[in-house]
């Protein structure tokens, strides 16, 4: 093997050659664009390139190619290291959340698998089960962080998949195995496996959309909600009442869309749980129940109490979400006998790659900030008046949140709106209405793409996504009916109820 061959093989590892060449082409193109067409257009090209790396997440984890792009962006001056640091520091609570909360959920997995396995076995209607996943995710996300709720759902899905895969591959419960490897799955079970993957994709997408449905409703549902509420001086109750004319119709339509998709079987939904898989789950649940020792029951009880503490602590905001996650780790492990460092380490493996990717994403946001890529849209919206301004604000926030961080978009717009109010350009009533348009705009249409919602991006880059073949394009396709029905409902509500 020559040095050239060794280098080309090492660059982005097992990614396809065409993908490697595409990333290299991006890296060569960007400095040329900067010189020829300027930083504004180059900045927008960088955003599209980063979205491409997300879309190809199943070919190559986006951290490396996306990281190369933003490193180059900093080198050629599209963003300064100081601005990147500021963006990361502004989102430090989210980083803490990912590091500690996701690991905390890992130590509640026995209780979660116990609870949801019973649910899966007892609720035989796929439509009812899908509605339950979506509605539960919505309810939890109204009081907890969407990433926390998504981490729970991912943990449950990984548990289901591993139980089935172990049995289908003929490996015993005590043996270590790799459930990413399908080579031991017999030909007779391949079709069954694909159907089960589709079934899990359905549940995960319904739940992911559910986090957006609930997250838009309350002051604590999403980070930008808290920011907007702070600027307006709204309490929890005031925020809910101001947003309700838009959020409640969207919630109803979103849940009805869930039912319709399962009934109609459109956009990849409607897949039933194979009978053979249900039998495996029933046998697993029965075996676990019969073999469960007193020690196992105590562990599940401890995890249930810790989960109750988690809900109460987050609902009453006793501390930053990430610090609550750290408390969950300490409590769950201390009272379950998990005290060895080697047993603690695996809990952090799932979240840390995504945490690094999120910082790369904040670097892209730094480019947007420094090059003022959204400035033309912002100025046009603020130049409007009355009902037209509300509608334009909702649409602009929705479109920009599809390609950028919705917290960043919400921050930019609410700051500009507050400045207009302070200058006497708009009334207090219009200020309140515009704040609702900003909040609902950043939360609802952003379900269209994985980069629009942090929970969607987390799902896309999680361990379960490659197992169930959930890529960027498929996720966007499955989110499309929700995007259409929820966005139109939100737009009509802004027009009819707020206008």
Give the structure's gist in a few sentences.
The protein is mainly alpha-helical. It has helices spanning 3-10, 17-36, 39-55, 63-75, 81-90, 92-106, 109-122, 126-141, 146-168, 187-215, 223-232, 236-264, 275-291, 294-315, 321-334, 341-344, 351-371, 375-382, 386-403, 406-422, 428-443, 454-460, 464-467, 472-498. The mean pLDDT is 84.
Descriptive account of the structure:
With 499 residues, the chain is an all-alpha fold. Among the domains are: 1-78, no CATH class; 92-221 and 266-351, no CATH class. It has helices at 3-10, 17-36, 39-55, 63-75, 81-90, 92-106, 109-122, 126-141, 146-168, 187-215, 223-232, 236-264, 275-291, 294-315, 321-334, 341-344, 351-371, 375-382, 386-403, 406-422, 428-443, 454-460, 464-467, 472-498. The longest helix is centred in the middle third of the chain and has 29 residues, at 187-215. The mean pLDDT is 84.
